[in-house]
Design goal:
The chain is mostly helical. Helices cover about 50% and strands about 10% of the residues. The chain starts with a strand and ends with a helix.
């Protein structure tokens, strides 16, 4: 494969790449490229790169598609079929609210790291839709990840040669210690939740604190996935709230699909709740919509995640506890680690994709465990030395 260069005009060269003869017609095939430069040597170098890419099968045909057009196509053709509805909605919000306004007019093939870095800098200082400052580093990091995923797919489809996000550093996010409740507060919180106006708050809070399940996992739990005699439950689906209503989804990872051993407190709570639910089912008869849900509304229909969160927020405020419903999950995992439970076990109960997530997110609990380990090894060695001196 070879090429021919000629100057087209001031600051522009035309490169003709010879592709050999058509195996059917026998006619010579070629492709023209325009290289914008004033240097013939630079044009020759660029032509050499194009020829090498063609020879190695890495060549990407230049396209007039814009970043905005590709992001829309990516959301429709790829994202919609690979993530949950809630996640797809969030991707669309990021694309329409941030990425397209800032980067959408660029040609997809011309989007460069310098453009993306400029967007990140602007987003951190004035990225809020209400014009009251910038987005948080965590939000900007999410936006960059969405853009990078879209660009990665464009590379796979050979719309672009390289992912321009690959050379862009995400903003640093300072990790804040999570809010948790103490064991004493947990007991008071469970008792208060059973007396709260929302009929599901008691069982939801009990399961969150005794199993570490997520809100959606608790609200998606079915009785067929609970074995009270064996003291176990299986996480098989989750309930999420989308613009189109409530929807069930499978766990995102294989580790999210898990079996959790139940402590006595959870078993008692589930038996209590099951008896109450059975009475309501009997009262309503055929009017009860039996979806086999543990945490259903009074008529059997799925419960609103937002309503449950709102009810818990009111209870926490009343008890003067600065925690969210999701913090009960953090509390459960933190309590396990503080009690000396192996991080791998805590990770399995939490449904983390791998143990490194547990170790990273809950590192603030680890110093105490390190001190305890040092004391235990010290006691072991002292006992060994004492025994040796007596022999």
């Amino acid at each position: 494969m070879k090429g021919h260069i000629k100057q087209r005009g001031k600051g522009s060269f035309a490169v003709k790449i010879y592709l050999g003869r058509d195996p059917i017609t026998g006619k010579e095939r070629s492709k023209w490229h325009t290289i914008k430069t004033t240097s013939k040597r630079a044009a020759q170098n660029e032509a050499a790169k194009i020829i090498a890419a063609m020879s190695e099968g890495r060549y990407v045909e230049p396209s007039t598609m814009t970043v905005a057009a590709w992001l829309d196509k990516w959301l429709t053709d790829h994202v919609a079929h690979t993530v949950s509805r809630k996640s797809a909605e969030r991707y669309r919000e990021i694309v329409d609210g941030h990425l397209k306004p800032a980067l959408g007019t660029y040609r997809l093939s011309k989007l460069a790291p310098v453009h993306i870095k400029g967007y990140l800098a602007t987003a951190l200082t004035e990225g809020r839709k209400d014009k009251k400052g910038g987005l948080s580093p965590l939000s900007v990091r999410h936006n960059l990840r969405v853009l990078s995923n879209a660009m990665r797919q464009a590379v796979k489809l050979r719309l672009i040669h390289v992912n321009p996000c690959g050379d862009v550093d995400a903003p640093r996010v300072e990790r804040h210690e999570m809010a948790t409740v103490t064991p004493d507060q947990s007991g008071r919180l469970i008792a208060a939740a059973w007396d709260a106006p929302h009929p599901l708050l008691g069982i939801v809070v009990s399961l969150a604190l005794t199993t570490g399940m997520r809100r959606g996992e608790i609200l998606g739990l079915r009785w067929q996935d609970v074995d009270l005699d064996a003291a176990k439950l299986a996480v098989r689906q989750s309930l999420e709230q989308t613009r189109d209503g409530l929807a069930f989804k499978a766990p995102k990872t294989a580790k999210g699909r898990r079996t959790i051993s139940l402590p006595g407190e959870a078993i008692d709570a589930l038996r209590r709740h099951k008896a109450s639910q059975a009475a309501m089912r009997l009262q309503l008869g055929r009017d009860y919509a039996d979806h086999d849900l543990v945490c259903a509304q009074w008529n059997g229909e799925p419960a609103s995640p937002r309503a449950v969160t709102k009810a818990f927020a009111a209870l926490a405020a009343k008890m003067k506890l600065p925690v969210r419903l999701h913090d009960l999950r953090h509390s459960h995992i933190s309590h396990l680690l503080a009690l000396g439970v192996h991080p791998k076990v805590a990770s399995e109960r939490a449904g983390h994709a791998n143990i490194s997530i547990t170790m990273d997110v809950y590192s603030h609990v680890m110093p105490g465990l390190q001190d305890e380990a040092a004391q235990q090894i010290d006691a072991l060695l002292k006992a060994s030395k004492a025994k040796a001196s007596q022999e």
